[in-house]
Amino acid sequence: MFSSTPFVLTFALFLTVPLLFLIAPQILPPKQVPLPPPNNELADLSLFSKATVASTPSQRSVHSRLGTHTNPKPKIAFLFLTNSDLTFSPLWEKFFNQKKNKHLFNIYIHADPSATITPPTGVFENKFIPEAMKTSRASPSLISAARRLIAKALLDDPLNLYFTLVSQHCIPIHSFDYVYNFLFHNTLNRNKRTKQPFSIFPNYQSFIEIISDDPNLLDRYNARGDNVMLPEVPFERFRVGSQFFTLNRKHALMVIKDKKYWKKFKLPCLNLDSCYPEEHYFPTLLSMEDPEGCTHYTLTNVNWTDSVDGHPHLYTPEEVSKELVYKLRESNSSYSYLFARKFTPDCLKPLMEIADDVIFRD
């Protein structure tokens, strides 16, 4: 009887191991991206609170916040979100250094502190925000990074009236003058005609892609679990869009003041294949709060025709040409794209070669 015991135990173990592989997925928790640590959240809340107070017109008069200028010019805040070197900084340097542009823009860089990044020079020098934290794909950390950039830009300069988010893989495909005039021309002319004083909240629209008919919309909506977005975000109000946008100051403030929707979008993803929080949060928030104030399209051209693993087409040096630049500018609407992505680092040389004669000649 006892001599058969080792055989029985061995046989039982042989049966148990396959069963564990079958039932483990039902017992163990699903793979998740961890939430940001509480101290990160507290630091962000403190930053957002300061930016909100500093940007609320009732706190101070508009004139005191804008200085003593009798005719101040609005600025564009360029927000660079990166986890690697700003390879195309020389091209952006040319973009920013065109005539009479010195006081019409500001630059802010959120660089993942866990990555080794070569400090850029020129107009990019000392533009890294110290509040930057680690970012990772398919997690709410990219939303947090964009919100930090917006908050720093709001806090830094009351003349920042547009906030343009780009990545290290983005390039400009028009001159700075073209971009500036495109964003501000209509409102500036209207103020001039009616002799209205400069307003901290002029009637600018935000350029953000907002899509309601994406074929994977339901999978994206349930990426954090079935119906966990309720009641704040019902499925019929859920939207998706491009990660990169240009927001007006009113909407920038709306983003950093939001707590209602953030508490849902910061939840960890259960289905990583359908979870791109940064492509969900901003379109949904602005669509729910001020759809008429948004154009519903982006100013950044991205080629998704041969995307791989959620990444768009990656342009190589062989593809760079004046014909490509002209094609990247084209859109299905009356506007022209102002920026484009995604380019390999070795595209810098051919891009610089056509910068003056093609890219910045509108």
Keywords:
362 residues; alpha/beta; Spore Coat Polysaccharide Biosynthesis Protein SpsA, Chain A; four-stranded mixed β-sheet
Can you offer a commentary on this structure?
By secondary structure, this protein is α/β, with parallel strands linked by helices. It has a domain at 38-52 and 73-302: Spore Coat Polysaccharide Biosynthesis Protein SpsA, Chain A, CATH 3.90.550. It is 38% helix and 11% strand. It has 13 helices and 9 strands. It has helices at 5-27, 38-55, 62-66, 89-96, 141-156, 176-194, 217-221, 249-257, 262-265, 277-289, 322-329, 348-353, 355-359, and strands at residues 75-82, 105-111, 160-167, 171-172, 206-209, 246-248, 294-296, 300-302, 339-341. The strands form 3 sheets. Strands 2-1-3-6 form a 4-stranded mixed sheet. Strands 4-9-8 form a 3-stranded mixed sheet. The chain has a two-stranded parallel sheet with strand order 5-7. Helix 11 links the parallel strand 8 and strand 9. Helix 2 (38-55) packs parallel to helix 5 (141-156) and helix 5 (141-156) packs across helix 8. The longest helix is centred in the N-terminal third of the chain and has 23 residues, at 5-27. The chain is globular, with a radius of gyration of 24 Å. It starts with a helix and ends with a helix. It holds the Pfam family Branch. Its main location: membrane. This is Core-2/I-branching beta-1,6-N-acetylglucosaminyltransferase family protein.
